[in-house]
Design goal:
heterodimer; B: alpha+beta; two-stranded antiparallel sheet
Chain lengths: 198, 220
Amino acid sequence: MTKKDIFITSAFRENSVWKQILGICSSLAVTNLMLNSLIMGLGVTFSLALSSFTLSLLRAYTPRSVRMMVQVLIIAAYVIIVDIFLKANMPEISKQLGPYVGLIITNCILMGRAEAFAAQNKPLDSFIDGIGSGVGYTLVLLAIAAVRELFGFGALFGFQILGDWWIRWSIMVMAPSAFFLLAILIWIINTKYYKEKA
Amino acid sequence: MSKEKVPFSQTIYYPVLFMIAVSLVFVGVLAVLYRSYEAKIEANKQNAYQLQIVQLLTAAISKASEIPEAKLLSDPAITYAQYISEEKGHPRRCFVAIVNGQKIAYCFDIGGQGLWGSMRALLALSPDLTEAYDLAVYDQMETPGLGSRITEEAFRSQFRGKKLLQNGKAIEFTLIPERQMGGSETQIRQITGATITTNSVLRMIKDEITIINSAKEAKP
């Protein structure tokens, strides 16, 4: 597989959210504003790529009995780096994302990629796979957030798009909307692209 | 049993030592990183807090010192250093704005229970501690887009100039619908879809103003 193939496979063909149904919890939690989603996506991409890279580097030396502990430890370290960075340089966004940055550690995508890809592949390939999965995840987040922010706040990235005449849909701001939007998204993509295989 | 030499990577000690080594490396990296950012993170918190206090007290300072509000807000750190100081001896953390030697306004750090968790707010009060100048909820876990609208201008502005205390007793506010115009001195337009949060804010103000004032009376 070429590097480009790896990227396309992990970002689209085998997208973590709509194909593997991983990382759902955070896709529901932080998607009420596009900016939050973008920062969250970048945070996940960063920790995913670097943790995959590091785990792949260590894969030959890691004893099988402790590999999951090592995975969690390394993922946690990168996530904490993201958290510290946000707290120091973007205190406003850090406050809005609240506990979700720390919870990237428990995001299934990271452990999933570490087990499924980084444990058997070269460091650079794993790095690209991490970027790909992260980009795929970010795209889903942004797609859901775009709908929620537009209908819920009449804005995109904080810029007011719809005027004062727009009556905000409270449901879009609250958690339930994320559930049905994600379901609709997965439904559309599955019928459109994966039907013949099933 | 033959005593063949087992390679070190097959022994039981290897995973243990490996885990310890990896932990030490990553914990070390994190510790160094955190130390180098610690001061900045603390300063961020401090600045955000001070900015809130300055924003709450600016109207009063501007009135007393005749300096336009925009100028006071252009550099909050200087405004804070010049006019605001922390005052001890109150039941809640207290900041006081002093212009020309006169105490012109107080700002108290108050707290209460919201719908999903506790919340903290800064409440600016007149020097006799009976009238609200401004209110800012700075730490809350209310429902985004509904309860969290207590931090928005439309809700906050209702408290400006409201009497909170009459004859030593906290005033009971009543709620009216969000879009209703007018409203009397003892009415607050509630947030639609967040009645519990609105009530929580009112309860917090009532409880805290009573505590703050009872301490004042206890003093000689």
